[in-house]
Amino acid sequence: MPEITYQGKTYPCAPDETVLDTLLRHGIEVPYSCCAGSCHTCMLHCLHGELTAPSQKDLKPALKSLKYFLACQCVPPQDLVVALPDDEDVYVSARLVEKTQLSPSVWRFRLETAVPVYYHAGQFLNLKNEAGWVRSYSLASLPTEDESLELHVRRVPGGQMSHWLIDNFSVGMHIEIEGPNGHCIYTEGEPERPLLMIGTGTGLAPLFGILRDALHQGHTGPIHLYHGVREPAELYLHDSLTALAQQHGNLHYHACHSCGETCTDMRAGRAADLALTEHPDLKAWRVFLCGAPEMVKQTRMKAYLAGAAMSDISADAFTAPEH
Known about the structure:
It contains eight helices and 17 strands. The chain is α/β, with parallel strands linked by helices. Strands 9-8-11-6-7-10 form a six-stranded antiparallel β-sheet. It has a six-stranded parallel β-sheet with strand order 15-14-13-12-16-17, sandwiched between helices. The chain has a five-stranded mixed β-sheet with strand order 2-1-5-3-4.
């Protein structure tokens, strides 16, 4: 049975158990989030031993060559000696240049790096602070139009990183970033294809970038964006999206809230329910889902049952709440 050596101590693996599961079962605290191989938060460095191909899926070639791997995807075929990533290999320093409150619970952070970060709108970054906390946040910026990296952060009840960012991370300070990662992006070549975007809370962030990317590339097909929140006051970027819809006849913005009084330019109800009711046939549509994990999971299946191909349903990578 394979054994994992970490920080000088060795831990036996159970049958078909991943490296992450082994370490967590023995009470070892290592960063992790999605447990699906998407967020890269659980990346470790293999100092000795052979890795499996799935454990290095979607990693950059340089990181593969240095024997970095995703602990949640690695069922070790033999003994491994592993360590936390070397920050110089994985992370780039970014400086906070703007911090703006967008709603009662959402802040916008704009970051700049000394070296260029090449990304697609809709991808995400992993942020690491001095305490070693690592969390994933989607990019709301568009590389062809925005000079800085834009992130939207919601204050999560009990969330270590969101509270630290909002309360302690100030303009001029630096933070480490890893990425970009993710495949929830706009793909060119089908400008007439209808797009359905459903996001809850700060799930709007990647959709805002993807939407602007589609318009920038001349998308002519209908685009329906449904943004859902609990209270109307949480509909941040409402004015910007309303103005964008007025400028582009093919863009239809639906501001949705499940509680509170309804204004004339807002909808009462859950975003996913309204979207699927109003678009019962999604055959040939491209669907983007971002936000609450349970909403994404349920809506993905409902969109599939409405005719959308699974390969045409893109979702953000976050399947676990902040802790």
